[in-house]
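This section describes the prediction task in plain terms. A model, or a person checking by hand, is given the sequence of a single protein chain and must write out its three-dimensional structure as a string of tokens. No templates, partner chains or ligands are provided. The sample shown here is typical of the held-out split.
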Amino acid sequence: MMMNNLKNIFKRTGRFNLFKIPFFIFLMGVALSVFPKNVFANNLLVDNFEVYELDEAANTITFQCDISWENSWRSVTNYDAVWVFLKYSTDGGATWAHASMAGSGSNPNGFYTPSTFEIVVPQDEKGFFIQRADLGNGNVTAEGVRFVWDYAQDGLSDEESMAANTINKIFGIEVVYVPQGPFYAGDGNSSSNYHFKEGSSDTDPWYIRSESAFSTTGASSDGFYYTSSGSSGEASSGSVFLVPTSYPKGYKAFYQMKYELTEGQWVAFFNTLSPEEKMNRDITSSVEGGKGSDAVVNRNTVVWDSSSPKLAAETTRPDRPMTYISWPDIAAYADWAALRPMTELEYEKSARGLDVSPKEDEFAWGTVSYNDALATEIYPDADEDGTEQIYDGSANLNRNNLSWSSGDGRAGGIAEGQKGPLRAGIFAESSTNRTTSGSGYYGAKELSGNLSEMVVSIGRSEGRQFLGSHGDGDLSEIVGYEGNATNTDWPGINGTDSARGVTGTVGSGYRGGDFNAANVRYFQLSDRSFAAKDADSLGQNQRYDASFGVFGGGRLVRTAP
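The expected answer:
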């Protein structure tokens, strides 16, 4: 039955527009058919969202909606999906909390989707995946999708769940499924680049055949040899250490964000925070190397008035990958979205594929060749609205610190002559394949270039303590540390009081290269030049430091149920 006094706000940010309809969801991206088939633009829509049923005896509310997207796909290899989660406010939107689903597993009781789809709810009940149930590709609509909020589990009474000042927001993030199985880490390159290899004189890559613990070795061959990049605190080359069973090695299946975190997704997150939380997550300040301005800087368009912290942040380029974020920033987003950081082994697995033999010096798209995007090639040569493309259809890499002179970078544009990232998924067009779209094996975009991938390093003991726990949707409320991730196994957890959350960077690193780098090797899949380098160990600003020059992006994962 319908509840007229349950207020719902919905905002959708898509590639093509920004508009408001009942309820609130952020869904953007590019759907992928299994490679080497074509890659197509997506148009994901949630419509007819409403309360379907209130069950006061069970203390649940069932919601219903239609979910559609173009060029959906499922193959024998993998598939795409959407991670959907719900937030609620009982004070008219001043504060927000994470909503619990009622039940877990595949299509649990009370959940419904047409037979050609399936809903999968993980054991922690923090959201659900919706995905195709059958092999196929093309445009799809899942009509009458139902999911159930267990408001009693979240501590709400019947009266609170139905009060006039109760608001619900729904968020969605496109992901790709990376299946379970063995893979190679390292590409057999005989030069340094700090790749994973089997021995001091054995360049064969590591072969990850399970999630079981293993120890590195100082032997000359046939082991797990660690090559150090020389970062402060990093294990030395040939050192012996244990990689415990609990550290996610990439063997087990997981879901991975298709795209690096965008400005639109960041703003949606930021606008659910309290004023105190916003102050700690404010990238427009100069704290820790933030952009220090509400102006467009390095193509970042996020605006927020810290003198009026209750006001919302805004962006005019919601599809642009988010810059000026630190490890504590992306950890906070991961905790809030009930996701987790990815390890550097998961990074290699997602790009290379299950049991795929590596090529020396290959990029994330599986070849040793690349084609730089040029500064003049953004088209139309006008304001970038989320439909912009690169004129050269074979371009697949954003690097070399280009000052863009087209699109927003043209004379008179909002980012005239600025350097920075391109729209998420910009290289994917209807005629592109894995190589020309710059995609990893399972469909994730820009694993090489645009922004560096922030990962959990295997080269630091602080990284190897990572258990792979997922965020619970709620952030620290400790005074002075509001808005921090609270997972105690994540790198950067405060060493004085873990209740303060993730405040540091030790144990994190970077893979894949970003627009600010020129050296081609940094973009190669197995390059580990920055895999154990973090701001705190280097004594630098966490968000950005010119002396280091790395722009980190956010791409998160969730272990498959």
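For orientation: The radius of gyration is 22 Å.
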